[in-house]
Amino acid sequence: MRLDIISIFPEYFAPLGVSLIGKARERGTLDVRVHQLREWAHDVHRTVDDTPYGGGPGMVMKPEVWGEAIDEVTGDGAPRLIVPTPSGRPFTQELAQELAEEPWLLFACGRYEGIDSRVMTEYRARLRVDEVSIGDYVLAGGEVAVLVMVEAIGRLLPGVLGNACSVADDSFAPGAMRNLVEGPVFTKPPLWRGHEVPPVLLSGHHGKVARWRRDEALRRTVANRPELASALDPGSLDKHDRRLLEELSFRVGPEHMAD
Ligand code: JCQ
Questions:
Q1: What is the pLDDT of residues 4-62, one digit of tens each?
Q2: Does the C-beta of 110 come closer than 6 Å to ligand 1?
Q3: pTM of the predicted model, to two decimals?
Q4: Distance of CA 66 from the midpoint of ligand 1 (Å)
Q5: Hey, which of 48, 82, 85, 120 would you mutate to test ligand 1's pocket, going by the most ligand atoms within 8 Å of its Cβ?
Q6: Alpha-carbon distance 232 to 212, whole Å?
Q7: What is the pLDDT of residues 171-205, one digit of tens each?
Q8: Residue 222: which of 251, 255, 186 has the closest Cα?
Q9: What Cα–Cα distance (Å) separates residue 75 from each residue in 70, 100, 167, 178, 241?
Q10: Which terminal residue of the chain, N or C, has fewer Cβ atoms less than 10 Å from its own Cβ?
Q11: Which residues are catalytic?
């Protein structure tokens, strides 16, 4: 997969040289190219921003600079263009999987109040353009959001994760556990600072281990992600599940309210 990133702070992307992604690059699985946006600014100050039309605070990134940058990076090709912004569509495991199947992605990192919207309009005629949000908070720029997305996408590429099972087993991976978060995990020693590993995990009883893990996943989902718990399909719950949710005084279904 080829991955281009355009930013006024290329130094943000140093972490892409280490760990999983760094190794994927060394092996040639990933071809990452980071570009300095200011190289396409022609004035003495290499200006990339200007005041917003209609007034208001902050600055907006100029369309001409972005246009020249994207034209040169794309050449005759047609990567998918991803623009991180708090107003974008949510970045989910499903979108990460979809993007991991693309041969070429181009990430455009905005700063200030954002990029002149005509840039997205212009390239929608030529490329698939997605404005994407990694969560409901505001960052100083798109760089950290790109790091998040590249890590989530990169680990899905064939051969990047050592253990293919750890991909399939993720809390949000498509499949059986899609609607529940993972429960707690433990390793040796069996007793640490007075804290025991739950004995069922040492019992060797695979059926009891599976039931215990599902109980813990349900408890954590109710505690930390009540909106996921509410959305559980009642048809996917067995008698044990229903009894546990009852004990937690949790009602399944879209009508659930804290009470
Ligand atoms: C991404 N959640 C938050 C901030 C404008 C392109 O325009 C802008 C980009 C940013 C950076 O992205 C985020 C973000 N997902 O803040 C403002």
A1: 999 999 999 999 999 999 999 999 999 999 999 999 999 999 999 999 999 999 999 99
A2: yes
A3: 0.94
A4: 16
A5: 85
A6: 19
A7: 666 444 469 999 999 999 999 999 999 999 999 99
A8: 251
A9: 8, 22, 34, 39, 55
A10: C
A11: 86, 113, 155, 170
